[in-house]
Amino acid sequence: MTLATTYGTRTIDELVLLYRNGRIELQPGFQRKSVWSLADRKRLIQSIVSGYPLPNLFLYKRTSDGKPVYDVIDGKQRLESIFMFMGEKPFYKKTFNVRLDIDLNKPTLWKWHSLRKQVPSICAAFQGFKLQTVEIEGNLAEIVDLFVRINATGKRLTSAEKRNARFFQSKFLKKARILANRYERYLLEQKILSRGQLDRMKGIELFSELLMSILQGHPINKKLALDRAIGNYSINGHTLKRVEKEFVQTLKLIQRMFPNLRETRLRNSVEFYTLFLVVWEMYKEGLVIGDRKRSQIAFELLKHLSHGVDEVFVSQREGKTVRPGPPYSDYLVTVRGTTDTAPQREARAKIIRSLLRPVFEIKDSKRIFSPEQRRILWNSDVHRKCTSCGRRLTWDDFTIDHVVAYAHGGRTQLNNAQLMCRSCNSRKGARS
Questions:
Q1: 267 found inside a domain
Q2: What is the pTM of this model?
């Protein structure tokens, strides 16, 4: 490594002043989210008040606008806990109390503002507490490697957190991060991921896989392909926008089709990945998948699959004889062991695809009625009135409407056509 290292100490008061002046960056691109519990934070404050030494703070020193700025490599959770306890912005709403052994015949739970008023000596000692610092300068790639190495102990980095650190400048990963934040509530409500998993960047990992699968047009082998693809794939802005558009459209379709997905086993991230890609395939093929009745049928099929697979699983676990009943046993095989390999994912997709595809129709490739069809319909209608408002029509102002809306699978055929005035046709929209 070609890193320059400076060892020193800084008081909590010095660190607070640096933070207030924007000179400490707690969340540089390679850093992970907060993973400490409230109990962890309280123990840290108790240790400082007791004067116990703490591990080193590792800070990446860089220059911004001619002034030094320190990106936190290791020690984010400690600094964050200190700033929370002291009520620093933006943590003032997350301040907490701590049980301290202060012999004043007063309650033992203390908040910072109470300490400042009643025990200023404790506050002064707290602010003057010195933390050992290691300030590092050098190549950013080496800094990121150092971050990963340092965090190999304690609360170890997940694969998603390592990927975020190594490829945080990747346009692809940035897009996955934005989308994961946008749909965080959906992931939580449908129980696709837990709050803890989201905090460990599992949402970014899941959306990265889905975006990459859309880009490549098929399920990917997560363990072998994702890091290599994100790190090396040169994707232009136009392609990335196209992939994002297809991703968002597919997720909206899933939300409409299966509003209660959490009631099935397909809400877990492994199986949700497969369901997403099957719906994306149907969307790309032009199937009509927005119809409410057909979506309800599809959801009932997914619930039936989920129930059958769960029954087989429970029977096998209890040592009972499992009655033959594909696709339940076959599906269960795909969610055991190495569930993220491309063959396992494709086998799972094949079963879900066989259930859903027959439910939905393919849109008619022709949407606009031909001149010949217009003439036939006009000349075969004796009354030539709008079928909605009854107004008499002329050759110059009539339109032809799909009785069953095109968006719902209606065919561009004469047996699905009716005369209508322009205003009524416009108001009807995609309703049948």
A1: yes
A2: 0.57
